[in-house]
Design goal:
Layout: H1 10-19, H2 26-36, E1 41-44, H3 51-65, E2 77-80, H4 84-97, E3 105-108, H5 115-123, E4 127-130, H6 132-140, E5 151-154, H7 157-162, H8 166-174, E6 181-186, H9 191-200, E7 205-208, H10 211-216, E8 219-225, H11 231-241, E9 247-250, H12 254-266, E10 271-274, H13 280-291, E11 297-300, H14 302-305, E12 315-318, H15 325-332, E13 342-348, H16 353-363, E14 368-370
Parallel strand pairs: 1-6, 1-7, 2-4, 2-5, 3-4, 5-6, 8-13, 8-14, 9-11, 9-12, 10-11, 12-13
Helix pairs in contact: 2-3, 3-4, 6-8, 15-16
The structure holds adenosine monophosphate.
Length: about 400
């Protein structure tokens, strides 16, 4: 579907053209008409499907077409998101699509001083994007007035559940008018999310993008069975031999992420790590270096990676497999975004075999199994591989100790 077939305001259509979008993604084509009709909506879709524009465009349209009722300064639209990264990215999207409109936006999240955020709220905002914790803090201090709210969006609701935000969300919702429009997006639909949806949404429209076909089908996936101790050397080898534009390396723990960062540093592979132990400014520095292409390798844990919106990630490495199969789908969804292709390479040690089975069951696909010789990489991955070139340091070289703890 072309965007100009949607009855969106000209100001928004112009911004979309400037963004270089031509056709609406499936979630956009399905969700936008319902949202424009004022319906509540439950969208089952993950990041990378274009879901931000799916809610941002019709909301901006509503704000453009309907003047603010009354004189208040409180937000007309509130978007709740689990992480500061995601909140920041949603704010950027609203800014981009709304660039020809005169709307006031603010984004509030924790980990930084609240001073600037409070000033923005006091000046008045139309669109507020927030993580639940900081919004509660500011609300408790009397800085947030949700009485004029017209549209509420809960983005990545399943991650907000994982992160323990549901009680805060319920308290926030209780402060909003009952006659609001509510939109909820979630990659997965556990019972707790269905309960939340039942309580918050009125006669909602359901829109679902099959997670598996949205991402797993487009990503070329392979797994190496490797000993735990060989993982670091294997990673270095692959990073050096494959044609990598940008790679994200996932580890299960923060400690694991630091170990990989250290190992890569020893091997002179520039990388940046983001995880919960890093300060906000460290995380932002790492992300912007990665986005700008100054470092090609980003090491991340699942939580820290939520909502990272970087195009052109050519490879995802699962240095560790997660015991949560859905996080595999989230991880590989960081590549092959917006129609690009991508490759996901997983390392599976003896202890992780059961995790692999669970993943294959969820995605209903067999992942190509490679031997632990990196010469055997799938078609298209081997372009720059040197024949017979095994991973360095496999036999007790200096890097071999990287994974023995
Ligand atoms: P999201 O799922 O909202 O994180 O969006 C994923 C990426 O797709 C973002 O980089 C968007 O800028 C991009 N995108 C969203 N909608 C479209 C579209 N209709 N055409 C091309 N790119 C898009």
């Amino acid at each position: 579907m072309q965007f100009n077939q949607l009855p969106l305001s000209k100001l928004i259509l112009r911004a979309i053209v400037e963004e270089g979008y031509e056709t609406a993604t499936p979630i956009q084509a399905m969700a936008i008409p319902h949202i424009m009709e004022g319906r509540d909506l439950m969208g089952c879709a993950q990041t990378g499907t274009g879901k931000t524009a799916a809610f941002a465009l019709p909301i901006l349209h509503h704000l453009a077409e309907t003047p603010r009722p009354g004189k208040g300064k409180g937000p007309r639209c509130l978007v709740l998101a689990p992480t500061r990264e995601l909140a920041g990215q949603i704010a950027e999207s609203f800014q981009a699509y709304g660039r020809h409109m005169s709307l006031r936006g603010a984004v509030v999240f924790g980990g930084v001083s609240q001073h600037h955020q409070v000033r923005k709220l006091q000046a008045g905002v139309d669109v507020l994007i927030a993580t639940p914790g900081r919004l509660m803090d500011l609300g408790n201090q009397g800085y947030v007035d949700l009485t004029q709210l017209e549209v509420l969006v809960l983005d990545e609701a399943d991650r907000m559940l994982d992160m323990g935000f549901i009680p805060d969300i319920r308290k926030i919702v209780a402060k909003t008018p009952k006659e609001r429009q509510t939109l909820m997006f979630s990659a997965t639909m556990p019972a707790a999310i269905r309960d939340l949806a039942n309580g918050l949404l009125k006669n909602p429209e359901y829109v679902q993008i099959a997670a598996n076909s949205a991402t797993a089908d487009r990503v070329e996936q392979a797994v190496y069975f490797v000993d735990k101790k060989d993982k670091p050397a294997m990673l270095t080898h692959l990073l050096e031999s494959l044609s990598i534009t940008r790679a994200i390396v996932f580890t299960r723990t923060k400690h694991g992420a630091d170990k990989v960062a250290k190992f890569l540093q020893q091997e002179n592979v520039p990388s940046a790590a983001i995880h919960g132990n890093k300060t906000q400014s460290q995380r932002e520095r790492s992300l912007s270096a990665f986005r700008a292409g100054k470092v090609h390798v980003l090491i991340a844990t699942d939580i820290a990676s939520r909502g990272i919106d970087v195009d052109g990630v050519s490879h995802v490495f699962n240095f560790d497999l997660s015991n949560d199969p859905e996080s595999y789908v989230h991880r590989i969804g960081r590549t092959a975004r917006a129609g690009e292709s991508g490759k996901a390479i997983s390392f599976c040690d003896a202890e992780e075999r059961a995790f692999l089975s669970a993943i294959q069951k969820l995605i209903k696909m067999d992942i190509t199994i490679l031997t632990d010789h990196p010469d055997h990489v799938p078609t298209g991955m081997a372009a720059t591989m040197r024949p017979g070139d095994g991973p360095r340091n496999r036999k007790g070289g200096r890097g071999g100790g990287g994974g023995k703890k």
